[in-house]
Here is the input.
Amino acid sequence: MKFGLMAGAVVLGLCVSSAAIADGAQDMGAGAMNRGGGPYSFQGGQAIFTNVCQGCHMPNAQGAVGAGTYPALAKNAKLEVAGYPVAVITHGQKAMPSFGNLLNDQQVADVVNYIRTHFGNAYKDKVSPADVKAQR
Ligand code: HEC
Here is the structure.
């Protein structure tokens, strides 16, 4: 656990230094994919967002346009139907890699619940690990 937190802090440091430009965001995304080479240990929606998602979607979830287009998750009406972000995260979509093998059902549920209740989104219904499992 201690090690996990430290590793998270290192990844966060990289994110902050590279978040300014979209090119950096893409590097960060690829790095996040390669690092570890197995399931992520991050626990809780915020930790997962910070370590896995914000490299592309930006710390404030505003998205970015540069080397690629990273849609904003902030104030995103497409998050209203919870099954949509669950599907995008577990299966990937176009330029977004799939995280189905890197995040377990609980982790996917946690990060979906996090983005749906932060960044100007206020969708109250919660996704459960069983909901995620059903969409795999
Ligand atoms: C390597 C970069 C990258 C990473 C890392 C990444 N995404 Fe994405 N994401 C994208 C791109 C690119 C798209 C647009 C896909 C498309 O064109 O449909 C996207 C789309 C999405 C969408 C759909 C948004 C919409 O308006 O249709 C959601 C939801 C989403 N991502 C959530 C996440 C979450 C949660 C994480 C972390 C677990 C994450 N993403 C990590 C690049 C990334």
